User: Fold these one by one.
Assistant:
Number 1:
Amino acid sequence: MISADNVNDSIRKLQLKASTDLDKRVHDDISIALARSQGIEPPVTGPTISRFITKGRVTKFAVAAAILIAFGIGFSTGRRSRPAQPTPDSLDVIAYTSIALSYPTAPKTEDSFWRQKALAAIQPRPHVDAQFTKTKLPGTYKQYLKEKKL
Amino acid sequence: MMLEDRLLVWKFNRGDIGALRDVYEKYKDDLVTLAAALLTDVSSAEDVVHDVFVSFIESSRKFRLTGSLKGYLAICVANRARTKNRSQQVRNRVLPDRTDTTDPDSGNPEFAAVFGEELRQLGVALEQLPYEQREVLILRSHGRMKFKKIAKQQGVSISTVQGRYRYALDKLRSMLNGEVRE
C-alpha cells in the first residue's frame, strides 16, 4: 500500500522494461540506417572502362604494358621507315605534262620555262625568308653603295 | 555519465549510427516507463519510443547536444506522447461510443498491472489525472526535470506548471487515500 506522503518516491519507483519486440524494431531501424549510411555511393549502373581499369591491380599493369608496347611499335616503325625517294624522271615528265595541260595555250618551247618556274617554287628561298632588322637594313644599303663606288 | 553521453553523441554526429544502439540500450527502459506513465498504455508508449529513435536516427548529422542526453530524449518522448494523446482524444470525440463502454474509474487494468501489485494502485490513480497535470508530475518526479524546462516544453509559464504539479499531487494523494473527488 502506498502512503499519500511518498507519492513522489513511488513515481520514481515506476519501472518498465522495453519489450523484445521494441528492441527488435529499433535495432532493425538502426541496422537499416547503418547500411544506408555505409552505402552512400550512388547505385552502380555498370562499370565504366576507367573504373574497371583503376579498380584491378593486374588490369592497371596490363593497360600500362599495352600503352608502352603500342608506343614502342610506333617508334620503331618510324625509325625504320625510309626517306622519301626522288621521283623518277618519268614521273617528272608526267607532272610537267599536267602543268603544260593546265596552260594549253603555252607554246611547247616554253615548257622549259614552266619547268624552271616549278622547280624554283619548290626550292627553298633563303633570301626571302631572311629577316632584316631595322638596324641591319641601312647598314647593308651603305655597304652596297660603297661597293658600287669602288 | 555525462561524459559517456557526450562521447556517444560525438560518435553519432560523426556518422557512427552504431552509437545509437548504446544510447538506446542505456535509456530504453526509462523512456518506455516515462511514455507509459504519460499515456497509461504500454503498447502506445513503445510506439512513441520507437518513433523518437527513428527521428533521432534521421537527425544524426545535425543533432547538437546542449543539455543532458536523457533530458533531451525525455522531452522528445513527452512531445510525442502529447501529440499521440491529442490524436486519441480527437478519436474518442469522433467515436464516443467506444468510451462509453469503459468504466472511467476502472481505468486500464493492463497498464496498472504492469507495475506489479505494489504500484498497481498508483497506476490506476495516474490514469485518472488530467493529461497536463500528469505530464508535469511525471516529468518532475520521474524525469527529475526542472519546472523551468517543463514550462518551456509545454509552452506555459512556470507558475502554471507549478500549479499543475501541486494539483496533480493533491489529487493523487486524495485518490490513494480513497477520497476520490471526481
Note: Chain A is about 65% helix and 0% strand.
Number 2:
Amino acid sequence: MYKIFSKNNNRKERLLTGFTLIEALVAISLLMIAISSPMMLAQKGLSSSILSRDQMVATFLVQDGIEAIKNVRDYTAINQNASTTYSPNTERDWLFDLGDCICDELEGDECDLANDDAKYCNVDSTDGLNVSSQDLLESAGPIYASFNDGFFQKYTHTVTSGNLTKFSRKINIKVSTSNLQEAELRVRVYWTSPYGIQNIETKTFMYNFESKLIPEV
Amino acid sequence: MINLKLKNNKGFAMLFAVLISSMLITVGVSIFNISIKELMISGSVRDSQAAYYAADSAAECFLYWNYVGPGSVFSYCTGASCLELVTINCNDNDISFDVTRGPINSFVIADDSQKFRYSTDPNSDIQPEANIEVTKEIDGTIRTVADFFGYNTGISGRRVERYYQRTI
C-alpha cells in the first residue's frame, strides 16, 4: 500500500515537474507576444514622430529657399536701374542674378526636380544669399547644420561650417514661354527615412512687377 | 484551509498577466496615436504651405497686372466707357473679373468663380488653387484692396486654406 502510494506520488511529481517547464515556456512565449506588440507599436510611433519632425524641418527649408530666391529677385529689381548691365524690363534680365537657376526645356534642360538629371541651383540664406550653380554643389545640394549661439540650428550649404544633415535641396526657375515676365519657381527638399526617400516640393510663381515701381536713375 | 486559500489564489497569474498586457498595449497604442497625430499636423503644415504659395502666386500675378498690365487694368474708372470685364492672364489661364459697381462711391471687381490654378503634380487632380477678389475703396483717396484665398484640397485629404490681403 505504501509502495503503491509512493509510486503514484512520484509519478505525480514527475508529471508536475514536466508541466512546470511547459507552463513556463508557454508563459514566456505569451509574455513575449504581450510585450513585443506594444513595443512594436511604440517603436512605429517613435519612427512616425521622427518623420513628422523631418517633414516640419523640410517644409521650412522649402520656404527658406523660396524666400531667399525672391529676395535675390527683389535685390535685382532694386539695383537694376543703377547699373547699365541689365535691362530687366525686357526679356529675362529681371532674373539676372538667378541665371544659374533658370531651366530651359527648349534648350534641352530637364526641369522636373524629381529626376536625377534635373537642372537646379541653390541659395544660401545664411551666407549673403549667394546663389550657387549646380556645378559648385557637391552631389545634390546637401544641407549642413551648424549651431548659432549654441542653441539655434542654422542650415547652410557651406561645407566648412557644419555637419552634414540628411536634407538636400534643389531649386529651379522656369520662365514662361508665353510671358517672359512670369516665372515658375520650384523648390524640392528631400531626405532618406526608414520609410524610403521622402520629399517636399512647393511651387510658386514670380512676376516682374517691381522694376516698374522703382524710378529710373 | 490551505486548499481553500490556494483555490482563492488560482487565476491570479492570469489576472495579473491580462492587467500588465493591457497596460502595455494601452501605452503602445497611445504613443502610436500621438505620433500619427503629429504626422497629420506636419502634413497639414506642408499642405498649408502649398495653399499659401498659391495665394502668393495669385498676389504676384495681380500686382504684375496692376503695375505692368496694359492701361492699368485695375485702375479706378467712372462713366460709360469703363470696362465691364477685366481679364488678366496668370499661368496661361485667363482670369476674368466682372466689374460691378457698388452703391456708395465704390466698385468691386470680383468673381469667385474664376481661379488662379496651378498644380505641383501635372498628373494629379489635387491642385493648390487661389481665388482673387479685388475691391476699390474710395474714401478720400482711392485704394485697391485685393484678397487672395489660396487653398489646397490636401494631399492628406484635408482642405487647408490660407488667406491674405494687400492694400495698395
Note: Helices of chain A lie at 2-79, 210-213.
Number 3:
Amino acid sequence: MKVCRRCLYTSLHPLGLTFNEEGICSGCTVHDEKNLLDWKARRSSLEKLVEGFRNTSGQNYDCIVPVSGARDSFFILHTVKKELGLNPLIVTYNKHYNTDIGVRNLARLRTLLDCDIFTQTVDPDRVKRITRATLRRFGNMYWHCLAGQSVFPVQIAVKMKIPLIIWGHHQGLDQVGMFSHLDEVEMSRRHRRDHDLFRQEADSLVSDFDFVKSSDVEPYRYPHDEEIAAAGVRGIYLGNYIRWDTKAQHERMLDLYDYEAAPQTRTFDTYNDVDCWMHSDVHDYTKWCKWGYGRATDHAVRELRFGRLTREQALAVASHYEEKEPLNMELFLEWIGMTRFGFNFNMDQNRSPEIWKRNDQWRWARQEAWGEAHRLAAQNPDRLPENKDGCVFQTRKSPSVCDSPDRFILIGKGEYRSPEIGTPVAV
Amino acid sequence: MRLNIGIVDYGLGNVRSVQNALERLDCRVFLSRNEETLAKADALILPGVGAFHAAMHEITTTGLDAILRRLAIDQRKPLLGICLGMQVLAEWGEEHGRLRGLGFIPGEVKALVPGAGRKIPHVGWSGVALRAAGKNLFSRKAEDDSYYFDHSYVFDAPEKYRAATVAWDDELVVAVAKENVMGVQFHPEKSQNAGLRILKAFTQFTKTC
Amino acid sequence: MYSPRIIATLVIRNGHHVQSLGFKHYLPVGSPAESAREYDRWGVDEIVLILTNDSGENARHIISSVADAIAVPLTVAGGIRTLWDAHNYLSWGADKVALNHVLVEQPDIATAVAHQFGSQCLVASVDVWRTGNKLFRYDHWLHSASSVELLDWIHQKIGAGAGEILLNFPQHDGMRIGMDSEAISQVVQDVGAPVIACGGIGTVQHAVDCLRTANPSGIAIGNVLAHFEQSILLFKEGIKTAGAEIRAAVKATYNSHRFDPRGCPEKLDDAKLDELLFHRIEPELI
C-alpha cells in the first residue's frame, strides 16, 4: 500500500490511483493542470461546443441540466442559463432522503433561475426493497440515488430528443486524475457502471431473494445503445472547461441566490451535501466501513490541493470526522425497516480485508500497513504554496418557508398523518 | 426447454468462450471426453485451435474418434465443429504429411496459398456467401453479418457440402454441413452477436432433431 | 477479403485499466473487465491487453475476467518469459499471446510457442523507433533504439513462426499526434503476415489517415476510447464515411450524423430530432 506524498489518498482508493516517480498521485498531477491551463481558451471551447446544440425550431430545449438541492447545482445552472445563454430543461431525481434545506434550495433554484423542471420520484416501497438489496449485497444504501441521478437525465434526453446533457465536474478526474482536463472526457455508461454503481447495473439487482422484480428496476435502466446513437446524446462536464473550485463557486451562490448551507455530521464541508440526511452521515459511514476513509478525507484532499489546508491540517480534520457516529442512523433504520444489528451485519460482510481486520477485542481496526504507509508518506511530504484565503465554510439559513396555507404552492413538501399511527409520515 | 450441450474435451481449444456463449443462449453446458456423459448431451460441439496432427493424435489416442462416430454418425446427434474442430471432420489433412481425419464429411484440409494482397494466416473479420447446405446454420440475416477467422489451412469440401464460402483466389470453403454434422471455420464464440446467431441456429436445429 | 480491424488496447497496471503516456505516466481509468465489456458491446473487432507489471494470480484474474466479459478475440501482451507463461495465458482465456522483449533474450521461444500452440496464437510485438528516415527496433531496457533494422527483425520473427505483427510506436504513444503511417506502410508492403499498428491515435481522422495511407490489417486504439460514449462506433462510422469497408458489428448507428474534428457527433437538425420523437427504436435481439 502506498500513500501520496502530497495529499492523503492511498493506492487502495476505490477509483484506482497511480503514482509518478516522485510519489505524487495522479489526482494531484491532474489538479496541477488547474494552474497551468489557459482557462480563457477552454471557456471559448465550451462556448463553441454548446453553440452547435442550440435549438433552432423554438419547440425544444437547448440542453438538459441535472440538478439537486445542493452540489453546485446553482453554479451549473447559473453558468448554463445566465452566462452561456442556453435554455435548459432541468431534471432531478428524488433521493427520498431530502432535508427541508434541500427542498428550499431546489425551490429557490427553479424559481429564481426560472427553469422548467422534470422530477422523478420512484415509489417508496420499490426504493426500500432495492436499498435493502444493495445494502445486503454490497454494503451500500445510496445505490438508488446514484443510479437514478445518473440515468434519469439520459432517459429524458433520449425520450425528448435533447442530445446535450451538461454536468458539473467529473468525480474521477477530480479525485484521482482519471482523465486530464485536456481529454475533454464525456459521460459514458461504462463509467457509470464501473464507478457510480459498483459494477451493478439495474438488472443485476433482480432477485427473488431480495423481492426485487424486473419491473422494479425499470426506472434505473440505461437507454439502449441504439436510442443513444440515434439521438446522438452526449454528456459534457463543465469542469473540463472551467477552473472548478466548488468552495469558491458555492460562496458566490450564497450571495447571489441565498443558497442555504448547514453543518454536516461527518464532514466540514457545509455546502455540498446539505440537501440530504444521509450523504455525509449514514452513507459516508458505510464508505468508512468498507474503505477505511470518509468524505472528510475527500474534502480535505480537495482543499489541500488548493493550498487552503496544509497536509497536517488535512490529516487532522479528516481524522476528526472519520470516526463520528452517524446522527441520522435511526431515521434511516426506521425508514428501511432494519435493526442496527442487521445493518452492522451487512457492513461486516463488506469491509475490505486489505484495510480492515479484527483486533484482539474482536473490534474492527485498520491493518498495520495503513498506518505505516501514512507515516512513511508524512516523513517526506510534498508541500504546495499556502493559499491565504484559508478554509472556512459558512452556514446560511433562509428565513423563507416553502409551504403555506394562504398562497399558491408550486411544489410543496406535503405531509400525511395516518389516523392509526398518529404521527406524520413525510412524503 | 433447456438444451444440454456437450463440449468435447480433447485438450485443444479455448472452451471458456464457447461455454459463455452457449450459457447466454440459456443452454446447460458441460465439458467431457467420456462417452456416457457425452451421450447425455442433446448436441455436441467440437472445438479446436492449433495443428491438425496434434488434434487427430489426441482424438485417436483417447478413443474419441470411435465415440464421436457412434454418437454423431450412428445415433445422429447434432455435431458442430469450430475452426480446427471443423477441419478434423474431413477425410484427410495435409499438415506435416498426409493424415487421416474423422471422415464425417468428404474433403481434404489443405494449406492456404498466399497471393497478391492475401496475408497468411487468414486473420480478421469477413462476411460469407451463403450456400444451400448451410440452411440450418445461416439465416437470411447472416448475409449482413461478419465472423472472425484465424487459420492457415482450409477444408476443401465437395460442392454439395459447402454451407458457406469466402472469396479468395477462387472460393474458400468456410462452413460445411452434411445432415446433422456441421462445421464452421470461423469462431462463432468470438464473433459477438453474429456468432451468437450461428450458435442459436445450431441449438434450434438441435430442437428439431 | 476482410475489412481492417479496429482494435482496442487496454494498458493494465496494478490490476487497473490505465491511460498510458509513453508507457511512463499512467492515469487510472477503472476495471479492465468493465472497459473490455463496453468496447465489446460497442462492436470492437479485437482486444489487446498489455500487462505492464501484473503477474501470477493477479494476471490470471485480469485475463480471465476480461475473457469472460467479451465475445471477441483477446490478445495478451506483457510478462511472457517462458512457454509455461504462454500456456497459462492461453488457458486463462487469451486467444493469442504477444511476445516482445523475450524475443530478444530468448531467440528460440518464438519457434517453441508456434510449434506448441500454432502460429495463429503468436503475435510478435515490436517497438519501432524512427531516426530520420531509418526505422529500428526499440530496446525498452536500454531506453534507446537498438542497431537492428526493423524489417530484418520482423522477417526473422515471421520465419520463426509469428502469425501476426504488432507494431508499437513509443514516440507516439499517448501523444495524440497521429500514427507513423509511412513506417507502417513500409512494413505492410514488405511482409506477408498481417500487421497491426498501435500508438498515436487521438481523433477519428488519425485512424482514417493511417488506413488510407498504410493499409494495415488493423489499427489499435488506446486512451482515447475511454473519453466518450460509444467511441468504437464513432470511429467505425468516421472510417466508413471516409470510404473504407468496416465491419458493422452492432445495430446502433450514427449514419445520420455529422461529426466534429474529434469524431464526436454534432447535433442533428431540429427537424430530424422532431421526426425521431415518435419513432420507436428497438434494441438488437439475437
Note: The beta strands of chain A are 63-66, 88-93, 116-120, 164-167, 234-237, 356-358, 364-366, 415-417, 424-426.
Number 4:
Amino acid sequence: MNIKKYTLLFIVISLIGYSCKKEDFLDLYPKDAITEQTFFKNENDLKLYANQFYPLLPVQPGLSENNSDNFVPSTRDAFLAGTYVLPVTGGGWTWVNERNVNFFLNRYQKADISQVIKNKYVAEVRMFRAYFYWRKVVQFGDVPWLSKDLNDLSAELYAPKNTQKQVMDSVLTDLDFAIANLPLPKDAEIGRLHKYAAATLKSRICLWEGTFRKYHGTGDEKKFLQEAANAAEMVISSGLYDIYSTGSPNTDYYNLFIQEELSTNREAILPMRYLKDIVMQGLTRTLGESGTGFSKNFVRSFLSKDGLPTSLSPLYKGDNTIEDEASGRDPRFKQLIATRGFVYQIGANGSKDTINLPRIGSNTAPTGYQMVKGRSPDLVQWNALQSTLDLFIFRYAETLLNFAEAKAELGDADQVVLDKSVNKIRARVAMPAMKVNVIKDPTSDFPEIPALIDEIRRERRIELAAEGFRLDDLLRWKAGKQFEKPETILGMKLSPEYRAQYPASQVSGIIVDANNYIRIYSNLNNRTWNDKMYHYPIPTQELSLNPKLAPQNTGW
Amino acid sequence: MKKSVKRSRLLLRIMKLSVVQMVLGMVFSGVTLAFEGRAQDFLNKSITISVEDTKLRAVLTLIEKQADVRFVYSSRAIKVDRKISVKTNGQRLSEVLFKILDPLKINYRIVEGQIILNPIDNEPAPEKEASVLNTFADTKVAEKVTDLGVKGKVMDDNGEVLPGVNVVQKGTQKGTSTDGDGNFSIEVSDPRAILVFSFVGYATQEIQVGNKTSFDITLKVNDKALQEVIVVGYGTQTKANLTGAVSSVSGAVLESRPLVNLAQGLQGLVPNLNINLNSGAPGKGASYNIRGNTSINGGGPLILVDGVQMDPNLINPADVASVTVLKDAASAAIYGVRGAYGVILITTKTPSKNNPLRVNYSTSFTSSRPTRLPKYVNSVDYIAMNREADATGGRTGGAQASNKFTELDMENATKYFNDPVNNLPVYVDPGNPSIYRYVGNTDWIKELYNGGAPMMDHNLSLSGGENKTSFVASLGYLDQKGILKITDQKFKRYNASLKVNTEVTKWLDLNFRMNLNRTENATASDRNRTGMAESRIGGDLRPNMPVYHPDGHFSGQGNWTNPIALATLNGRMKTQANDLWLTGGFILKPIPRLRIVSDFTWNNFQRNEQEHQKEYYEYGVDGILLGSFPWTKPTRVIERNDNDYYTVINSYADYEFNLGGKHYLKAMVGYNQELKQTKFVSTSVKNLIDPTMPAINLNNDDRPIVGGTQGDWAVSGTFFRLNYDFAKKYLLEVNGRYDGTSRFPRGNRYVFLPSVSAGWRISEEAFFAPLANIVNDLKLRASYGKLGNQAGDQLGNYPYLATMPAGTIGYIFGSQQGTAVSVPGLISPNFTWEKVTSVNVGLDFDVLQNRLTTSFDWYIRDTRDMIVGAFPLPSVLGTSPPRRNAADMRTKGWELSTTWKDRINSDWSYNITLALSDYTSKITKYDLNDTKTIGSRYQGETLGEIWGYDTEGFFKTDDEAAKFDQKQLWAGTWLAGDIRFKDLNGDGKITRGTNTVGDPGDRKIIGNNTPRYQFGLNLATQYKGFDFTVLFQGIGMRNVAVEGQEFWGFTNEWQIPLKHNLDYWTPTATEAYFPRLRLGGGGNFQVQTKYIQNAAYMRMKNLSFGYAIPQTLTNRIKIKNVRVYVTAQNLFEFTKFYKSQDPETVNQNTYPLNRSISAGLQIGL
C-alpha cells in the first residue's frame, strides 16, 4: 500500500509541477536566420548588406532596346503600341529597393568601426540610392523622396510628391558623397564599386537631367550639364581607362563584346563578370532566337567610311541589297549586323555556319538586320545560361560620349574636347575624326538642333547600340515624335530580285511596303506618339490610398 | 490480490463491434474500457451483516433487504442450503458478494437490477469477464448432462423466431446458424464453452453453456449505437452522453476496399469533414478541413494518431480502428491552441486480452487510368490558329508570336497530317540549316499517359492476448505506379506496427507502441522543368513537334522541350522517408475509480531525396550534334535530407463518482507538452566522375552547393474536463485549457480557453414515455467555446522576430559568388492569438427501433483578430505590411448525417447513409481596407465571391467595336468577334472604376467558388455472403472562373489550345462559344458571366461487391473467413463542368485523379 501511495503522490506532484508556466521550455529562437537585433555590428555586416544591391546594377542588356527606334521586334512593344493600360497597382510604382537602401542608412551607425570604413559602405549604398531614385524620376517625373525606411504607421506614407528638381538635387548629393568616399579602383575588390564607377554614373544621370531640363524647358539645366561634364572629365583625367583596340578596325568593336575577361580590359570601368559554374549568362542564345532586328531608321544612321552621312557621301551605294548598303560604311555596320560572310556559329566539329542571305523568315531576324553585338559563334556560349562572356556595367566609351554631349550642350565643345572623346571612339574603327564645324546632315532626324550635337547623338546611337540607352535618350531629348517615322518600324529592302534568291516558301509570308522595305506590322504604316508617354502614370490605387499624390501625370 | 480480482469482475467491459464487422465476420475489433454507471450503483451499496453458520438462502435474503436487490437462481444449481459464516461492516456489496460466493464457486451476473447466480463448474473460464451485460435471463433449472450437443431457439423481443442467426462457439471455428424456425443445434467441446449469437440489427449475446443443453435465446434490438464508445480528447465517452459536435467512423468502412491513403477512405462519410485529394500522384497526400473556411490565413484541423500529431497520409488505412472528428470548440477545447479548426482523432487497432491468436491477411490488385485529361488540337488546327491569332495581333496592336509559323510550315504540316506515311514530320529550317522545323502531329497526352497503372497492396495482422499481456502487430505494403507513365514512377509504402499492453499488477498497466511508416518514391527528375515529378506536364506540348526525328534521335531543339526525352534521358529522383514512432506509457489505478494515464512519445522522421540531373544532347538535321539540352546541364547529383525529432508527453488523471444515485460526476485533469525540431540539409555536386552514377562522393566539384534550414516549436498546456449528469437526462461538460506556445514572445504566449456544452436527453423524460416505442432516443445538444489559434504554419516558427534573409547573389566579387544579407520584413510588436469562438446546436434522434438514426448540427464559428499581412498601404512603404490582428470572419453552417438501416428478411439487410453539409463565410471586420478595394479583403465580403463582367455577346462588326469604349480593359483595336461587355454603370464605357466595391466599374459579383452542399451518399446491402456498397460523393453548388491556358487556350503564344477552343468566332461562325482568336486574348479573357463554370458534381467514389465464402466451407480447411471482392473507384461522375478538367481538383495542372478497378481477397485464420 505504501508504495502505491508514494507513487500516487509522485504522480500528483509531477502533474502539478508540469502545470506551471514553462516559459523556458517555450523560449525558442531562430537557429538558421540572422535577426535584426544582432546585425549591423561590424564591417562585414555592412558589406553583406550592401552586397544585395549589386545584382541590380544596370548591365549592358542586349535586347532591351525593343522599346526604341533602334529595333523592330516581331511582337510590338506594348508601351510604344499605345496599349499600356492605366494600372491599378504595380506599374513600376514599387519602392522596395528605395526602402532597402534607407534601412541601411538609418542603421549602419550601430556598427562598432571607424567612420571612414562606415563611409565606404555608406557611399556604396548612397550610390545605389541615387540610381534607384533617378530611375523613378525617369519613369514618373515627380516622385516622393524618402530618406528613411517607413513602417505601416509612418506619416510619410501619405506625403505628397517631391518635384523632380528636389529629388534630383538629393540624387546629386548622394552621388557626390559616393564619389568622395568610394575607394580608387586599385583599392577596391574586383567587382565592387569605386570612385570612377560612381563618377561615370554621375555623368550619365546628370547628362540625363541636364538635357531633360533643357529640352522639356523646365530650366536650370546648366548646373547638371556642368556636373555631367565634370564627372566625365574626372574619369578621363584619371588616365586609368582607354578605348579597347588591337589595331583591327574591322573586328575590334565586335570582339570587345565577346570577351571572357573584362576586369583587365581598360575600357571596362566596371564589368559584370561571369565565371563558369558560378554566375553565367545567356545572351548568345537569346540573341539567336531574338525575334527582333535593327530598324531601317537605325541602319540608315550609319555614316559612310568618309565620315559623311548617306545623304552626302559619294560612297553610299543605296540599299537595294544589304550588301550594297553595308559597303563603304562605318565598319561598325558589319560588326553589329550579320551580313554575308559573317561566321554565325562554329559547330562542335569545327564546321562553320556562315551567313549568306540574311536569315529572315523565322524568328531570327524579322527585319533582315540581325543584331550580333555580344553574340559569340562559340557553341559553348550558346548553351542556355552557360555563357561566361563578361558584359559591361560601365563602359568608358559611354563616359566619353557623355562628356562630349554635355560639353556640346554647354557650348563648350571645342576640337580638344572632341579629340579626347568621340574621336577616340572613331579611331578604333578607323573612322575620320569628327570636326567642330561638322556639316549638318540634310536628312537628320533632328533637323532643328546644331550639327555638332546632332553628330554626337549619331555617334552615341551607333557606338552604344543595344546597350539600353536609346529610349532614355529620346525621352530626355523630348524626341518622342521620332517614333512616328515609318522607317522606325521597317526592315531592310527585299526587292523582288533579292527575294528571288530565297526559297519561295521561306519568304512567302514576308510583306513589304511600296518601296519593298520589309513591313513587320502588316497593318501599321507608322506609330503615333502621345506626349503623355514621356512619363508613366501612377497606379490608380495609389492615388486613392494617398490622394496627395495627385495630380496624375499629364495625359493619363 | 483478492481485492484486485474482485475489481476485475466489476470492471464491465463493453465490446465495440460494429454491425458491418460482425456481418463480414471480420475479426478486427476495438475494445475499450469503461465504467458502467448503473451496475456500479448498487454494487457500491454498503452492507453490514454478521452471521454464523447460516444458510446461504437466508444470507441472500438479508442482503436483498439491505441493498434493495433481487437474487435470481435455480435452487437445484445453487445449493442454497449450505451454511456459511460471514461478517461485514459497511463493505460494498461487490466485495461482500465476492467474499460469500467465491468460496462456493458461484458466479454472478447482473441483469436489469437482478443478480443472477450460476455455479462455476470448474476453474473460472477465461472469458468470464466478457460481455456480462448481454446474458440470458433464463432461470429455469437444467439437469447437469454429460452430452455436449446443444440446441435451442432464438427469438426477438416480441417472441418472433429469428432465422439466420449466427451461432459460433467463441474462440473456435465451430459455428452454425438458425433455421427457418429459429432453431439451432451445435456440438460444443466442453461445458465452459461460450456461444456467441449474432444477427444484424441485434445486440450480440454470449452465454456459457454450462450444464444446459437447451436454450431459449431472446435477442434484443441493438441499442449499441447509444452505448457505442467514442474516442474523445483524452478519454472516451458513450454516444448517449456526448454533448459536443462529434462524428465518428469505424475502421470497418475502410476495410472493404483498397486505399492509397486514409483520406480517400474517409471522403464523403462525415458531413463537413472536407477532404481535398489534391492530386492523383502516387504518394501524394490529401488535405483535411472541418466545417469550412478557417482563418483567412488558412489553417486546418489538428490530426492526431493515437494521441500524437502524425501525418495521416503516411499511416496504413488497414490499421485504423476508428476516426473521430471533433467539430465544435467545446469538444476540441481540450487541445487548446491547435484545435481551433477542429480535431481528427485517429485510433489504431488496440490489443484486447484473452483472445486467441488471430491472423488476418488481405491483398488487392488495382489498375488505374486518369479521370479526365485535356484534349489538345491537332497540328494543322494549331498552326492555323496560331497564325490567325498572330495576324489579328498584328492588325490591332495586340500580342504577336515571336516564334511565327510560316506558310511553309502550314503546307508541310498539312501534307504530313494527311499522309504521315509518305511525309516527314520535320523539314530543314530555311533560316538555320542545322535545325529542323516541326510539322508533325503528335497527341502528347496519348504519348504521356499510355496505358493503365497497376497498384497492389498486402496487409498482414496478428493479434492475441493472454491473461495479462496482449498485442496487435501488423505489416502493410503498398506498391503503386504512376499514371503519368512516361515518368515510370514507382511508389512504395511499408507500414509496420506493434502494440503491446500488459497488466503488471492490478493497479498498473504498461503499454508500448511502435510504428514505422516508410515510403519510397522513384520518378523522373524534374530539375528546372517543373511538372514532371509532382504534376502532369503542362507546357511545351506543341502538336507539330514529333517525338522522334526521322533519324531516330529525340526531337527537341533549342526552345522546344521534348518531355519524353526529358523523362527518359534525364536522371531519376528517388525519395525515401522513414517515420519511426515509439511510445511507452502506463495506466495507474492506485485507488478505485481513479485512473492516471501517461505516455511519452518519441518520433524521428528522416527523409532523403536524391536527384540525378543528367546532361543529354540535342541533335539537329541528320543527327548533327547541336549541344546539350540546357536545362539539365551540368550533370549533377543533389541530396536532400530531413531529420526531424518530435517528442510528446501526455499525462492525465480521471476520477468519477456518484453522489446519491442520480448525480454522476467525472473529472479529468491533464498536461500535454510537445517539442518539434526540424533540420534540413541539402548538397549538390556536379562534375560527376561517372555521369551515369548518381553518387555524391564520385565528383570532382570544387564548388559543391550546400544548403539547409533548422527550426523548432513547442507547446505546453494544462487542461481539465468535468462531466456531470443528472439522472441520465441532463448532461453538462466543461472543458478548459491553459495553453502556451513558443510562437509568441513571453507575456503574450499563454492563453486560457474555456468551453461548455450541455445535453438534454428528452427521450429519458417521463413525459416522453408514450413515444418511447417509436423514438428510441432524442437528445438536444448545445455548446459554446473559445479557442486560440497560433496560426502556426502560415506564419512560421518565430513570427514575432524580424529575420534577415541571407544567401548567395548573382554577382561575383573577386572570383567568388557574392553573399548578401537583406532586409527583414516589418513586424508589428504586439500581435497575438487569433480567437475562434464557436456555437453549436445539435439534435440527435433514433427512431423505429434504431432503423433511422439522424444527427443534425448547426453552428456559427467566429474567427476574431485574424492576423492579416496583406492589406493595401501606399507602395512607398516598400515592403509587405506587417501582420496585425485586424480582421474578423463569421462562418455559418450545418451538417446532417442520417442512416436508415433495415432487413428485408433474415438473409438480406441494407443501409443508406447520407452525409450533407454546408457553410458560408463573411468578413465581419476588416480595418485595413476602408476603401473596400477589390482584390483585398473587405468588410462584408462573402468568401469565395467572384467579381466579373457581364457578357453582352460578341461585337457584330468592326465598326460596332470601334464605337464602343473598352479601352481600359485593353487598349488595342477591338474587332468583330471580340467580347462586348455590358455597361452596367451606364457611363458609356467599360472600366474597372476605382476598383472598389463602391465603384467596381462594370463589374459585379457573378458567382461564388465556395463548394456548397457537399454530400456523401452511401448505400450498402448484404445478402447472405454477398455484400455490395456504393458511395456517391459530390458538391451541390459551386462556380469556378477557370482562367489560364487550360480554358482559354492562347493565353500566350506558347500555349496550346484545347479541342474545346476550336469553337471560336470567325466571320462565318458567329455563334461560336469562344471569341475570336488572339494571343493573350486581347481584352477578352476577363472573368465574366458567360464563361463561369458550374463545378457541381456527383461522383461515384466507390463501388464494391464482395462475397464471403460460408464458414461451413472454410472451416473445413481451418480458415475462419474468406472474402473476395471487386471495387471500382471514381468510375464516373455527373457534372456540367467543362470536359478537360476534373471538377474535384479544378486545376488542370495537377496530376489527374485515378479511375481504378480492383480485385481483392481477405483471409482470416
Note: The mean pLDDT of chain A is 91.
